[in-house]
């Protein structure tokens, strides 16, 4: 059994097994068993899902931390969004990363899938910047002060094995 120690600041949001927790003061917690959790900047609000890669991230996030119904819908949406993205991208690396992310999500390894999609988001930002479609430093960041709005009705994320 492994444990994970998290240090959280006042105002940080942590979602564990579907329950959003906001910290009133600085805390250090230890997760001693397997749990689905996301915290801080890992959590994307619906308002930040403004690009194709960000919509994929949000769909997989929902598949990870939503209730059973939301998880199924999130995974199905992720499949559709990934297929659309793969049709238009010219990058073989992006297609491979999205294939891997979808495979991981379908194996209920959504935390690892989200990590891959964050890389795709970075690539997407670079492409949009070079095309002049995204000003420097204009890319929305995953997470934010009101990340609680992103938490599906019963949410949690990040896995300790």
Automatic annotation (TrEMBL):
One of its GO terms (molecular function) is mRNA 5'-UTR binding. InterPro entries: Flagellum_FlbT. GO terms for biological process: bacterial-type flagellum organization; mRNA catabolic process; negative regulation of bacterial-type flagellum assembly. Keywords: Bacterial flagellum biogenesis, Cell projection, Cilium, Flagellum, Repressor, RNA-binding. The keyword Translocase does not apply. It holds the Pfam family FlbT. This is Flagellar biosynthesis repressor FlbT.
């Amino acid at each position: 059994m492994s444990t994970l120690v998290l240090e959280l600041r006042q105002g940080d949001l942590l979602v564990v097994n579907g329950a959003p927790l906001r910290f009133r003061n600085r805390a250090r917690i230890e997760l001693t068993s397997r749990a689905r959790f996301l915290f801080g900047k890992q959590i994307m609000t619906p308002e930040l899902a403004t690009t194709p890669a960000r919509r994929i991230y949000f769909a997989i996030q929902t598949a990870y931390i939503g209730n059973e119904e939301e998880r199924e819908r999130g995974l199905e949406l992720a499949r559709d969004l990934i297929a659309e993205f793969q049709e238009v991208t010219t990058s073989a690396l992006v297609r491979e990363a999205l294939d891997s992310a979808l495979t991981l999500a379908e194996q209920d390894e959504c935390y690892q899938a989200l990590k891959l999609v964050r890389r795709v988001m970075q690539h997407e930002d670079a492409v949009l910047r070079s095309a002049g479609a995204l000003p420097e430093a204009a890319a929305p960041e995953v997470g934010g002060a009101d990340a609680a709005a992103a938490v599906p009705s019963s949410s949690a994320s990040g896995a300790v094995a």
